[in-house]
């Protein structure tokens, strides 16, 4: 069946992949982003109605993160408008182990809409399309939480699971937890990238306090520094958060992509051998 589907953050790490997969399944996709027409901007609630007009289902990624101040209000307004406009179902991308994000999950769960919550662990693509890319290109990565073992998950797996639960109503009112199949520390992850690319990447672990200080010294915005500090401390600081889940296998019927496969595939794109670009 053909649906009209709004993909909020449809040019981002997971949204782009979700949109591509939906289009291959002959679904009508509208990208929800500031640069699309009609424009959708989380910061401007007057854009919500137009973006939702005629839409049957929606995938929501909140930018920058459901934990930031203002996220709850925005999700609440969006779901209220969506209910009134006749939306059938929503899939919300959330963060595994993010207490602050749970308030937004509850808003969706109590909205009156059919929903599926997708809680994902940290993405592989943070190393290739986001904040770890520039330090890798510079050959020098400094990160806190050296002891944390993280089941990094691939954005392609998230997208495949999202498409499945978005179109299949047997997942209504459920929470799916998606992780990669194996836990790695940051040092191990960087070592794998270094081995595969044959590029020398020096890794140094720093305390969270020093990491926050260097972000401040680099002039990064206050809100961004708070968010990164929160994500490291709250999400990675709790070992309970870092449990491997096999929900992905249950949903998409195959094993999650291993970090090594991601590294092999991504090395071939040349992204880790380019000159430095800002990926923030
Ligand atoms: N990275 C991780 O490891 C991780 C792990 C678990 C959960 N998450 C969750 O993933 C979500 C982000 O998803 P993602 O990584 O797929 O997306 P992303 O790559 O961070 O997002 C970029 C997308 O958001 C859009 N965007 C940016 N600002 C916007 C605004 N003010 N209004 C509307 N759209 C805006 C961008 O389009 P325009 O610039 O054109 O507007 C683009 O489509 C966050 O809520 C985060 O909590 C991330």
Describe this entry's structure for a reader.
The chain is α/β, with parallel strands linked by helices. The protein has a domain at 4-120 and 155-178 and 243-256: NAD(P)-binding Rossmann-like Domain (Rossmann fold), CATH 3.40.50.720. It is 40% helix and 15% strand. The protein contains eleven helices and eight strands. The longest helix has 15 residues, at 222-236. The structure holds NADP nicotinamide-adenine-dinucleotide phosphate. Residues 9-15, 33-35, 40-43, 61-63, 65-66, 93, 95, 120, 122-123, 126 line the site of NADP nicotinamide-adenine-dinucleotide phosphate.
The hetero compounds bound to this protein are:
NADP nicotinamide-adenine-dinucleotide phosphate
Helix content: 40-55%
Radius of gyration: 19 Å
Tally of DSSP helical segments: 11
H/E element sequence: EHEHEHEHEHEHEHEHHHH
Structural class: alpha/beta
CATH A-level architecture of the domain at 4-120 and 155-178 and 243-256: 3-Layer(aba) Sandwich
What's the mean pLDDT score? Answer: 95
Measured between the Cα atoms of the first and last residue, the distance is: 38 Å
CATH topology of the domain at 4-120 and 155-178 and 243-256: Rossmann fold
Unreliable stretches: none
Strand content: 5-15%
The CATH class of the domain at 4-120 and 155-178 and 243-256 turns out to be Alpha Beta
Q: Can you summarize the main beta sheet?
A: 6 strands, parallel
CATH superfamily label of the domain at 4-120 and 155-178 and 243-256: NAD(P)-binding Rossmann-like Domain
The neighbouring-strand order within the major sheet is 2-1-3-4-5-7
Which descriptor suits the 3D outline?
globular
Beta-strand segment tally: 8
């Amino acid at each position: 069946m053909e649906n009209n589907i709004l993909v909020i953050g449809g040019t981002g790490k997971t949204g782009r992949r979700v949109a591509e997969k939906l289009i291959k399944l002959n679904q009508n996709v509208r990208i929800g982003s500031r640069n699309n027409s009609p424009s959708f901007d989380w910061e401007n609630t007057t854009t919500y109605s137009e973006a939702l007009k005629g839409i049957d289902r929606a995938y929501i990624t909140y930018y920058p993160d459901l934990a930031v101040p203002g996220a709850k209000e925005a999700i609440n307004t969006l779901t209220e408008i969506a209910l009134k406009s006749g939306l059938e179902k929503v899939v919300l991308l959330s963060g595994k182990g993010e207490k602050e994000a749970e308030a937004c999950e509850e808003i969706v769960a109590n909205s009156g809409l059919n929903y599926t919550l997708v809680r994902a662990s940290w993405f592989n693509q943070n190393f290739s399309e986001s904040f770890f890319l520039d330090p890798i290109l510079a050959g020098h990565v400094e990160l806190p939480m050296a002891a944390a073992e993280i089941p990094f998950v691939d954005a392609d797996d998230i997208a495949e699971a999202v498409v499945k639960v978005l179109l299949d109503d047997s997942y209504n009112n459920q929470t799916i937890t998606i992780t990669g199949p194996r836990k790695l520390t940051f040092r191990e992850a960087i070592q794998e990238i270094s081995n595969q690319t044959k590029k020398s990447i020096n890794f140094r672990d720093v305390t969270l306090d020093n990491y926050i200080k260097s972000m401040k010294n680099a002039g990064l915005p206050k809100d961004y520094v708070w968010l990164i500090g929160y994500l490291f401390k709250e999400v990675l600081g709790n070992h309970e958060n870092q449990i491997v889940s096999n929900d992905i296998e249950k949903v998409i019927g195959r094993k999650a992509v291993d970090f090594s496969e991601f590294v092999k595939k991504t090395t071939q794109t040349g992204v880790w051998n380019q000159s430095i670009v800002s990926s923030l």
